[in-house]
């Protein structure tokens, strides 16, 4: 999957004013506490996308200088969207404390 090759219908904003440092705090939260392994990383000048699986669901954590941090499913199913909402709720609390 290449950056931006996903259906943004299910995308959830974690923090629309997040900094790059806050993105890395969230990736640390995912890898250290949620025990996810990032399967691929796409870093560009104004956009970063890190793909991972969470409880078997392929998701992407994205950072953009224009839209902050978003969480997006790699598949456009209702189950994937539900998992995005669940995980986003947990990450929003972490983003707010930074």
Count of helical regions: 2
The secondary structure category is alpha+beta
Euclidean distance between termini CA atoms: 30 Å
Q: Please state roughly what percent of the residues sit in beta strands, choosing from under 5%, 5-15%, 15-25%, 25-35%, 35-45% or over 45%.
A: 25-35%
Helix content: 25-40%
Using only CA atoms, what is the Rg? Answer: 12 Å
The helix/strand series, from N terminus to C terminus, equals EHEEEEH
Q: Specify the biggest β-sheet.
A: 5 strands, antiparallel
Gross morphology: globular
CATH class: Alpha Beta
Q: Major sheet: order of its strands?
A: 1-5-4-3-2
Instruction: Specify the CATH architecture.
Output: 2-Layer Sandwich
CATH topology: Double Stranded RNA Binding Domain
What low-confidence regions span 5 or more consecutive residues with pLDDT below 50? 1-8
Number of strands: 5
* Average pLDDT: 86
Tally the structural domains.
Answer: 1
Can you walk me through this structure?
The protein has 98 residues and is α+β, with helices and mostly antiparallel strands. The protein has one domain: 2-Layer Sandwich (Double Stranded RNA Binding Domain), CATH 3.30.160. A 5-stranded antiparallel beta sheet has the order 1-5-4-3-2. The longest helix has 19 residues. The protein is globular and about 30 Å long.
């Amino acid at each position: 999957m290449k950056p931006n090759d996903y259906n943004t219908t299910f995308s959830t904003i974690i923090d629309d004013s997040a900094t790059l440092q806050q993105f890395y705090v969230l990736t640390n939260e995912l890898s250290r506490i949620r025990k996810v392994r990032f399967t691929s990383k796409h870093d560009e000048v104004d956009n970063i996308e890190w793909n991972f699986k969470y409880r078997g669901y392929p998701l992407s954590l994205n950072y953009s200088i224009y839209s902050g941090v978003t969480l997006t499913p790699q598949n456009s199913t209702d189950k994937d969207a539900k998992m995005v909402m669940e995980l986003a709720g947990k990450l929003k609390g972490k983003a707010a404390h930074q």
